[in-house]
C-alpha cells in the first residue's frame, strides 16, 4: 500500500540539489552575458539638470549608457500602478529611468551596460549628474504637515484617504463605561532576502523571442508587463523564475525598472544582458514596509468587553505607490484579529515621503494592526485589573459564531468573513504551553535573584489564500513518471515537496516519480503569484483538483484495458489494479501509452497504442468526442474568498535592571493553519517568521536622516538577527480545517512574524510596569523610558 | 583619453593557480577580481553565494587551507597557490551528501538555500575541532552567518546532527 504523504514530515525534494551547490539562482546563470550597473540618485529629492557621460565613453568594455531620453515606445511611460483602488486618488509610479526628477536616494537615473560588473561600475563612477536640490520630505509627521511636497501635484502628500465603519463607533465609545486613547507607532523594516533581485534577458533574433529569468514572486505577471512595455507579442516572451534566495514580499512588486530595462537593452543590443542587485542597491532601491503612526480611541465595559473602537492611522508609502493600498488596507482590516470590536471605525491616510517605496513585507500590514489591537487589550486589562488572557477570552469571536462576518471589505475586494477557528482553544493551549498561570511564582523567584522578568501574549488572525485563482497542470508520462506544474513561484517554501505530497496521495504514485515545476511560463501561463500565504491553499488545491481529473481519466482507460468497472479500480504505487486482486493490473505508464492512439511505434511499449495493435470499435473515432490524447489535465482553483488562519504567541523576557538589555527567555507559539500538509515545513515557516518578528521588535529599523539618506544601508548597520538573537521557539498546533477548499488548508507563510512586536512589547511592559507604545525598542530607548517614568 | 591609473585603461591580468575541491585550476584575472567572483564566474562553481559583498552575511564562506574565509573579502590573486574547499567539495567522494549536508536535510535546516553553502562550509570546519558540540556551542558556532528564512533553530539542530553523522560514518 502506498504510504499517505499528506500530513507527514516528508524530507524536502529540493534539498539535495541546494545542499550540494547545484541550485541555480539568478546570478548562477548567464556567465557570458553583458552586465549592468546603474547610476542612482544620491539625493532624496532633486531635479535632474544634466547627465554628462563624456568622461565615461572611452572605458574599455563599455557597451552602452542609457538615460530616460534613450527610452522609446511604452518604456517611456511611468511603470504600472499594479493595484488601483478608488480611494487611491493620487497614485504615482516612477519611470524606469528617472525623468527630470528623483524622489528617493537610490532611484535609477542611468543604465550602464558593459563587459562585466566591475567595468560597469567604473563607468557609473565617471558619469556626472547635475542636480537642483529640492526639500526632502522624510518621516510621517513631516509628510503629514504638508509644508513641502514630494510630488508637486499631490496636495498635502496624501495619496489616499480611506474610511471603513461598522456600526457607530463614536456613539458606542461615548456610551461605554470606560474610555481610553493610545498613540502608537511602528518603524520601517524590510524583507531583506539574502539574495537580492536580478534579471537576465536573452533575445533570440532567429526566433524573435525573449527568454527572461528574474528573481520574482510572479513570473506570469512579469511576462505580461514586459511584453506590454516592450511592445512585443506576449506569445514571444517567456519568463522563468530560477531558484530564488528568499522573497518575503519584496519580489512580488513588478515590473521593477530593471525588469523592463534589462530585456529592453538585450533586445536593442542583440546580446544577453544581466543585472544582479547588490546589497546597497537592495536597501535603497527595492522596498521597505511597516512605518505607521496610530491614534486609537476605544470604549469598554466593566467586564472588559470592547464596545467601540476607532483607529486613525498614517501610513508611510514612500515615494511611489505601485502596489496601491494593499498594506494599509490589510492593517485596517486585520487589526481586528480574533476579536469582536463592538462598533469599529478606521480611517487611514497613505502619505508620500522621499524614501524607498513601501510594499508588502511578510505580514504585510498585519504586525502593525496586531500591535494596535493587542495594546488595546492590554490597556483594558491594566485599567480594570483583569488578567490579560481573560480580557482576550471575553472579546473572542466564539467557534459557534463561525463563519464570522466583520462587515468590512478585505484586501481582495471581498467580504472580511472568517471561515473557521477556535480561538478559546488556541489560547488554552498557549497558556498551558507557556505556563501562564504559574508565571507569578516564576516572577517572584526571579525577583528574589534580582532579575526582572515579564510575560506577554498576542493573538492574530491572518487572511491567507487570497484569490483570484491558481492552476495546475499534470501529465503522466509513458514511463509512469508524473510532471506537475503550477504558475506561481517559489522562494524556499518547499513548494515542490508540498505539491508532490498532494499529488502522491491523489494519484497513488510514489514521491520519487513526481517532478514539480513552479514559476516557468513555458510550462504554465496563467497564474497570479506567491504572496499572502497562498500557495498551499491556491496551488495546492488546484493541483489536487487536477490530479483528481487525471486520475479519473487513467481509471477510465485502465478499466477498458482491464475489462473492469472503474468503480472496482484503485491506484497503488503507480499501478491501476482491480481492488482485492492485484494480479489484474496495468501500470500508469502503460495507461499513458494507451491514452495516446499512435500511428508510429517508437519502442515496444508504444506498440500497444498503434492502430493495428488491438481491435478497436470502428464506430468511435480513435480519440473520442470530448476527449483528448494524452494522460494529462489542467484545472484551476478560485475560492469565493480568503481563508483565515490564526495564532497566538507568548513571550517571556528579562530586562536588565541596569543596562536595559532585553533578552527573550521563552517564545511560545500556538498556530492554526487548518489541515497541515507537512508539519516540518510549517514549523520552519513559523521559525523563520518569528525570527523576523524578533528582528522587527528589537533590532531592525531604517535609519533615515532628515535629508533622506539611509544611514544604515548595509548588513553591517541594519541589524538582522543572527542565531544569537533568536530564541528557541516552542510550538503547538491546532488544526481547524478550512471549509473553503478541497484540502482544508490555510496559509502558513507569514504567520510567525505577525504578533512579534505586540507580544514582545507586552512582555517588556509587564517586566517594566509602564506602557510600551512604539516598536522596535532598543536598550537605549528602554533606558530612556525608565528615566522618563522614574521622573514622574 | 586614458592613463595608466585610469580605470578606463585595459586591466593588467595576473596568473593565479588554485586547488579547488582537490582540482588544480589556473586562472588569469584582474588584480581586483574577488575570489568569490573567480570561483563563481570563472570556475563556474556557483554553489558559493554572495549575499552582501562586505563580509557580514557569510554566504560566501569557503575554506582556505581548511579555515572558513569570506571569499567576497579576498582577491583571487591573494589566494594564489591556496587549497580551497567550496560547498561542492563537501560531498562524499561518491557524490552523496556529506555529513553536514545530510544533517541539513534531516533537520530541515534550509529553506531558500541561499545562505546554506556558507553554513555548510563553516560547520564542516567547526566539526574538525569540535566533534561533539552541545546545542549552545552549536548556536555559537553559526553565530557569524546570517539566514533570513529558518530562524536558525533547525540549523542549530543540524550542527548537532552533523556531528552524530560524522561519528557514525567514521565508525563504519
Task: Quickly list its features.
heterodimer, A: 792 residues, alpha+beta, Aldehyde Oxidoreductase, domain 3, Aldehyde Oxidoreductase, domain 4, 3 domains, seven-stranded mixed sheet, six-stranded mixed sheet, 19 helices, 29 strands, 25% strand, B: 172 residues, Ubiquitin-like (UB roll), DNA polymerase, domain 1, 2 domains, five-stranded mixed sheet, 5 helices, 16% strand, globular
Structure description:
The complex is a heterodimer of chains A (792) and B (172). Chain A has 792 residues and is of the alpha+beta class. A 7-stranded mixed sheet of chain A has the order 3-5-1-12-9-10-11. Chain A contains 19 helices and 29 strands. In chain A, strand 22 (569-572) and strand 23 (575-578) form a beta hairpin. Helix content of chain B is 33%, strand content 16%. In chain B, helix 2 crosses helix 5 and helix 4 (135-141) packs across helix 5 (153-171). Chain B has 2 domains: 13-89, Roll (Ubiquitin-like (UB roll)), CATH 3.10.20.30; 91-171, [2Fe-2S]-binding domain (DNA polymerase, domain 1). Chain B has helices at residues 35-42, 99-106, 116-129, 135-141, 153-171, and strands spanning 13-20, 23-30, 61-64, 67-70, 83-85. In chain B, strands 2-1-5-3-4 form a 5-stranded mixed sheet, with helices on both faces. Chain B has 172 residues and is an alpha+beta fold. At the A-B interface, helix 1, helix 2 and helix 17 of A face helix 2, helix 3 and helix 5 of B.
Decide which structural class fits the backbone of chain B.
alpha+beta
What sort of overall outline of chain B do the alpha carbons produce when their principal axes are compared? Answer: globular
Biggest sheet statistics of chain B: 5 strands, mixed
H/E topology pattern of chain B: EEHEEEHHHH
Number of helices of chain B: 5
Largest sheet: spatial strand order of chain A: 3-5-1-12-9-10-11
What do the pLDDT scores of chain B average to?
A: 94
Hey, roughly how much beta strand do the residues of chain A contain?
15-25%
Mean pLDDT of chain A: 96
Strand order of the largest sheet of chain B: 2-1-5-3-4
Helix content of chain A: 25-40%
Radius of gyration of chain A: 28 Å
Amino acid at each position: 500500500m502506498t504510504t499517505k504523504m499528506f500530513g507527514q514530515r516528508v524530507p524536502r525534494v529540493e534539498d539535495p540539489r541546494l545542499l550540494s551547490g547545484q541550485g541555480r539562482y539568478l546570478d548562477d546563470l548567464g556567465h557570458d552575458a553583458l552586465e549592468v550597473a546603474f547610476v542612482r540618485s544620491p539625493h532624496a529629492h532633486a531635479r535632474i539638470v544634466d547627465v554628462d557621460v563624456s568622461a565615461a565613453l572611452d572605458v574599455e568594455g563599455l557597451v552602452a549608457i542609457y538615460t530616460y531620453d534613450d527610452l522609446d515606445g511604452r518604456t517611456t511611460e511611468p511603470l504600472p500602478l499594479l493595484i488601483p483602488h478608488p480611494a487611491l486618488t493620487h497614485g504615482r509610479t516612477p519611470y524606469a529611468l528617472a525623468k527630470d526628477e528623483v524622489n528617493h536616494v537610490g532611484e535609477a537615473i542611468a543604465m550602464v551596460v558593459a563587459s562585466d560588473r566591475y567595468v560597469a561600475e567604473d563607468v557609473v563612477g565617471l558619469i556626472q549628474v547635475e542636480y537642483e536640490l529640492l526639500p526632502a520630505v522624510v518621516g510621517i509627521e513631516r509628510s503629514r504637515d504638508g509644508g513641502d511636497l514630494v510630488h508637486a501635484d499631490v496636495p498635502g502628500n496624501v495619496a489616499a484617504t480611506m474610511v471603513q465603519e461598522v456600526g457607530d463607533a463614536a456613539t458606542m465609545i461615548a456610551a461605554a463605561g470606560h474610555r481610553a486613547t493610545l498613540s502608537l507607532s511602528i518603524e520601517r523594516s524590510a524583507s531583506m532576502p539574502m539574495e537580492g533581485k536580478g534579471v537576465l534577458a536573452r533575445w533570440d533574433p532567429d526566433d524573435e523571442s525573449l527568454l527572461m529569468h528574474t528573481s520574482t514572486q510572479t513570473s506570469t505577471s512579469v511576462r505580461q508587463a514586459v511584453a506590454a512595455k516592450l511592445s512585443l507579442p506576449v506569445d514571444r516572451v517567456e519568463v522563468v523564475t530560477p531558484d530564488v534566495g528568499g522573497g518575503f514580499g519584496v519580489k512580488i512588486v513588478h515590473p521593477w525598472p530593471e525588469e523592463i530595462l534589462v530585456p529592453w537593452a538585450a533586445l536593442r543590443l542583440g546580446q544577453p544582458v544581466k543585472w544582479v542587485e547588490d546589497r546597497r542597491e537592495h536597501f535603497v532601491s527595492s522596498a521597505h514596509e511597516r512605518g505607521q503612526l496610530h491614534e486609537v480611541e476605544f470604549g469598554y465595559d466593566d467586564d472588559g468587553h470592547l464596545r467601540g473602537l476607532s483607529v486613525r492611522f498614517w501610513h508611510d508609502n514612500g515615494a511611489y505607490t505601485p502596489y496601491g493600498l494593499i498594506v494599509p488596507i490589510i492593517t485596517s482590516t486585520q487589526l481586528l484579529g480574533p476579536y469582536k470590536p463592538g462598533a469599529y471605525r478606521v480611517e487611514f491616510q497613505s502619505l508620500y515621503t522621499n524614501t524607498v517605496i513601501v510594499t508588502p513585507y511578510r505580514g504585510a500590514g498585519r504586525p502593525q494592526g496586531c500591535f494596535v489591537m493587542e495594546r488595546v487589550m492590554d490597556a483594558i486589562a491594566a485599567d480594570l485589573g483583569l488578567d490579560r488572557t481573560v480580557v482576550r477570552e471575553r472579546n473572542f469571536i466564539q467557534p459557534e459564531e463561525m463563519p464570522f462576518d466583520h462587515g468590512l471589505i478585505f484586501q481582495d475586494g471581498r467580504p472580511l468573513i472568517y471561515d473557521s477557528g477556535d480561538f478559546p482553544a488556541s489560547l488554552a493551549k498557549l497558556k498551558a504551553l507557556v505556563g501562564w498561570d504559574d508565571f507569578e511564582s516564576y516572577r517572584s523567584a526571579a525577583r528574589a535573584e534580582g532579575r526582572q522578568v515579564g510575560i506577554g501574549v498576542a493573538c492574530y488572525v491572518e487572511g491567507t489564500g487570497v484569490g483570484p485563482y491558481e492552476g495546475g497542470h499534470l501529465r503522466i508520462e509513458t514511463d509512469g513518471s508524473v510532471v506537475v506544474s503550477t504558475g506561481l513561484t517559489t522562494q524556499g517554501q518547499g513548494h515542490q515537496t508540498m505539491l508532490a505530497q498532494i499529488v502522491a496521495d491523489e494519484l497513488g504514485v510514489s514521491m520519487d516519480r513526481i517532478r514539480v515545476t513552479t514559476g516557468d511560463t513555458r510550462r504554465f501561463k496563467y497564474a497570479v503569484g506567491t504572496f499572502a500565504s497562498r500557495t498551499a491553499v491556491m496551488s495546492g488545491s488546484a493541483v489536487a483538483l487536477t490530479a483528481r481529473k487525471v486520475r479519473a481519466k487513467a481509471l477510465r482507460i485502465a478499466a477498458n484495458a482491464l475489462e473492469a468497472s472503474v468503480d472496482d479500480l484503485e491506484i497503488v504505487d503507480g499501478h491501476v489494479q482491480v481492488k482485492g486482486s492485484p494480479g489484474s493490473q496495468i501500470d500508469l505508464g502503460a495507461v499513458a501509452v494507451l491514452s495516446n492512439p499512435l500511428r508510429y511505434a517508437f519502442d515496444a511499449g508504444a506498440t500497444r497504442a498503434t492502430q493495428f495493435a488491438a481491435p478497436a470499435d470502428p464506430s468511435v473515432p480513435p480519440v473520442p468526442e470530448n476527449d483528448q490524447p494524452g494522460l494529462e489535465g489542467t484545472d484551476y482553483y478560485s475560492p469565493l474568498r480568503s481563508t483565515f488562519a490564526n495564532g497566538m504567541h507568548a513571550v517571556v523576557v528579562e530586562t536588565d535592571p541596569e543596562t536595559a538589555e532585553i533578552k527573550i527567555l521563552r517564545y511560545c507559539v500556538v498556530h492554526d493553519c487548518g489541515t497541515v500538509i507537512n508539519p516540518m515545513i510549517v514549523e520552519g515557516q513559523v521559525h523563520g517568521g518569528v525570527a523576523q518578528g524578533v528582528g522587527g521588535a528589537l533590532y531592525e529599523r531604517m535609519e533615515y536622516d532628515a535629508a533622506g539618506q539611509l544611514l544604515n544601508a548595509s548588513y553591517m548597520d541594519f541589524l538582522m538577527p543572527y542565531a544569537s538573537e533568536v530564541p528557541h521557539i516552542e510550538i503547538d498546533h491546532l488544526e481547524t480545517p478550512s471549509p473553503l477548499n478541497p484540502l482544508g488548508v490555510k496559509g502558513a507563510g507569514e504567520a510567525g512574524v505577525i504578533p512579534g512586536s505586540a507580544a514582545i512589547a507586552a512582555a517588556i511592559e509587564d517586566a517594566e510596569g509602564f506602557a510600551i507604545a512604539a516598536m522596535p525598542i532598543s536598550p537605549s530607548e528602554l533606558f530612556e523610558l525608565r528615566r522618563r517614568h522614574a521622573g514622574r | 583619453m586614458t592613463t595608466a591609473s585610469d580605470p578606463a585603461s585595459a586591466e593588467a591580468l595576473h596568473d593565479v593557480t588554485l586547488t579547488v575541491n582537490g582540482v588544480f585550476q589556473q586562472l588569469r584575472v584582474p588584480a581586483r577580481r574577488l575570489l568569490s567572483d573567480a570561483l563563481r564566474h570563472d570556475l563556474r562553481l556557483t554553489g558559493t553565494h554572495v549575499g552582501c559583498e562586505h563580509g557580514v552575511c557569510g554566504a560566501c564562506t569557503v575554506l582556505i587551507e581548511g579555515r572558513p574565509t569570506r571569499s567576497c573579502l579576498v582577491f583571487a590573486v591573494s589566494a594564489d597557490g591556496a587549497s580551497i574547499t567550496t560547498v561542492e567539495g563537501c560531498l562524499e567522494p561518491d557524490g552523496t551528501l556529506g555529513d553536514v549536508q545530510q544533517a541539513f536535510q534531516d533537520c530541515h535546516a534550509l529553506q531558500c538555500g541561499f545562505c546554506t553553502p556558507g553554513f555548510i562550509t563553516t560547520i564542516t570546519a567547526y566539526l574538525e575541532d569540535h566533534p561533539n558540540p552541545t546545542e549552545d556551542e552549536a548556536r555559537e558556532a553559526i553565530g557569524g552567518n546570517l539566514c533570513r528564512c529558518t530562524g536558525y533553530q533547525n540549523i542549530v539542530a543540524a550542527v548537532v546532527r552533523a556531528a552524530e553523522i560524522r561519528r557514525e560514518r567514521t565508525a563504519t
